[in-house]
Design a protein that fits this description.
The chain has about 575 residues and is α/β, with parallel strands linked by helices. The protein is built from 22 helices and 18 strands. It has an 8-stranded mixed beta sheet with strand order 13-12-11-14-15-16-17-18, with helices on both faces. Strand 11, helix 12 and strand 12 form a beta-alpha-beta unit. The two termini are about 45 Å apart. The relative contact order is 0.07.
């Protein structure tokens, strides 16, 4: 019989001498109350001698926010210390706190479509709940550090080969019920020794990673390496305490707050896309399986290559034979480079060419689901279109040059099926799409960034000071964790460059949302996520000081304080409340 634990999202089902704990359908994520109720139920089950074991049904569960690290530690210890065998059941995509809970269980059963991603390092954090202590005990140092810092999806089969998952089955919960009925013994992860068996190899692997992880101002890679090393050098309880201290240090860093802001603006940008897709669903639009390009030019070779790589049919049409030939040659050269690097097989290359057609007349594009136009002379009857670049009355698109890149779309005066087709194209190519307007964001930010660099040079700042100043505010090579940016020329150059970019960001958000501008700046790599975005930095700096930095820069035009910035100051407002 199923019941709920209080008013939390955690449900329980007792049957056949097995207690099953699971999240209620529709639960958005584990709360502090949910985690506490899981721990309480596990402790109570441990005292019930009639129980054959506990199943943690984690299928589809959403991770707890990082702020709940303290109670996550408690629930993981309660699971591991249970006197009854605990089996964690996983299915689909998972990671974060859910994976930490699974590692604390005595057994892990995974569905065949399980994908585990430990993505905390991407956000300036590292796993909690004892994950840095338990995972190395199961799979060793190299695989643990690689899994934590790599932030890549690992399949159930890979995890089983590593030793992090015990069984890969069609129905994890049913398999767990049968296994418990047959009699499973308590087997605590903290006592697992296979990952620590060869201490010399373990330390060699740790030292191989030391100082070689991804560079970031928080030095997360070094924090992870130190915690994994502690799994071998410290007793388990002290290792947990060490992980907790390191994680607390990361939480307290200003860059971690910036990472949190980056997550929020990126989520808001995705919400914009979902809302737009909802509005456009009534207009139809279908799928963009066949892409056309009209007068596109060689700059769109990356787009053609990406579309072919995703199995799309592509038609290139251009009445200018030289421009058409230049684009075709650029695509062929890119494919040859992929062939040389073994990233593309000859069979795949031939299949791509079979799906690529070209012609000189617009009529060659008839039948394309979406046509991206480089000039305005495409007859409307040919098919639905979006414009490449800054012109045109319909939707305008700044495409990403590769799969998974940053792209921007400016909506037309009236929303149409063309916008829906652009959304489908972005989905197919894995673009991080931002709805911009009335101008594209990333190109304008880059132009002003370069203008600020030029202006600083005219003011007498050396190239070295400008480069160091740009890096200090995230617009260049990331400084080392221990590097302190000195006051003086470097500091001044950085603040003035930041002010110029933030001022342009304010101009671009006029009539729009701040989160779209910051999301575009982050997505395009103009500013790293540990800086939060130009408008986030503007709020931290203070708009009055930001304006003073612009006045010191002494530029004209787009380097002068924008009307939006002046209005925000006069009204005493911030970009983010």
């Amino acid at each position: 019989m199923e019941s709920k634990l209080g008013d939390s999202h955690v449900g329980q089902d007792l049957g056949g001498g097995v207690l099953t704990l699971h999240l209620a359908e529709g639960a958005a994520g584990l709360s502090r109350r949910d985690l506490g109720d899981i721990a309480q139920a596990i402790v109570a089950a441990g005292t019930d001698k009639a129980l054959g074991g506990v199943i943690l049904d984690l299928r589809g569960a959403q991770a707890a926010p990082p702020q709940l690290a303290d109670v996550l530690d408690e629930v993981c210890l309660a699971i591991e210390n249970s006197a009854r065998p605990v089996v964690a059941c996983l299915d689909g995509m998972t990671g974060g706190a859910i994976w930490a809970i699974a590692l604390a269980a005595h057994y892990r059963f995974a569905g065949e479509n399980v994908q585990v991603v430990m993505s905390e390092a991407r956000f300036g954090l590292m796993p909690g709940g004892g994950a840095t202590q338990r995972l190395p005990r199961l799979i060793g140092a190299a695989d643990s550090i690689g899994m934590i810092l790599g932030a890549k999806a690992h399949s159930a089969q890979e995890l089983c080969a590593f030793g992090a998952v015990d069984r890969v089955v069609d129905a994890p919960v049913s398999a767990a019920q049968q296994a418990l009925a047959e009699g499973l013994l308590v087997r605590r992860t903290r006592d697992a020794g296979r990952g620590l068996r060869d201490a010399k190899r373990f330390l060699t692997e740790v030292r191989a990673f030391a100082g070689k992880g991804p560079r970031d101002p928080l030095d997360v890679s070094n924090a992870v390496v130190r915690c994994v090393e502690a799994a071998l050098l410290l007793p388990f309880a002290q290792g947990l305490a060490f992980e907790s201290v390191v994680l607390e240090d990361l939480f307290g860093a200003p860059q971690t707050r910036a990472f949190g802001h980056a997550l929020r603006v990126e989520r808001a940008a995705r919400d914009d896309l979902r809302a737009l897709a909802g509005r456009l669903s009534e207009l139809g639009g279908g799928q963009a399986a066949k892409l056309g390009l009209w007068r596109a030019g060689r700059a769109q070779a990356g787009l053609v290559l990406a579309a072919l790589g995703r199995g799309m049919a592509v038609v290139i049409a251009d009445p200018d034979p030289e421009r058409l030939a230049a684009l075709t040659r650029e695509v062929a050269a890119a494919q040859m480079a992929l062939l040389s690097s073994k990233a593309l097989s000859e069979e795949a290359r031939d299949a791509d060419w079979a799906r690529l057609q070209s012609g000189g007349a617009a009529e060659a594009l008839i039948g394309c689901d979406l046509i991206l136009t480089g000039q305005a002379d495409l007859p409307p009857a040919i098919g639905p279109a979006a414009h490449l670049g800054h012109w045109g009355e319909g939707p305008r698109l700044l495409p990403a040059p590769a799969i998974g890149g940053h792209a921007e779309m400016i909506l037309g005066a009236r929303e149409s099926a063309s916008e829906a087709l652009v959304l489908d194209l972005a989905r197919r190519l894995g673009w991080r799409l931002t709805v911009a307007g009335p101008q594209f964001i990333a190109p304008n930010l880059r132009e002003v960034q370069q203008a600020a660099v030029q202006r600083l040079g005219e003011m007498g700042y050396s190239a070295a000071d400008i480069a160091a100043g740009m890096a200090s505010v995230g617009m260049g090579r990331a400084p080392k964790a221990a590097e302190k940016v000195p006051y003086g020329a470097v500091y001044d150059a950085g603040q003035m460059a930041l002010a110029a970019v933030a001022n342009e960001a304010a101009r671009l958000m006029a009539g729009g949302a701040a989160h779209a501008v910051d999301a575009a700046a982050l997505g395009a790599g103009i500013m790293p996520r540990w800086m939060g975005g130009p408008l986030y930095r503007a709020d931290l700096r203070g708009l009055i000081l930001l304006r003073a930095d612009l006045v010191r820069l002494g530029g004209a035009g787009r380097l002068a304080p924008s009307a939006t910035l002046e209005r925000m100051i006069s009204e005493g407002r911030r970009f983010y409340p």
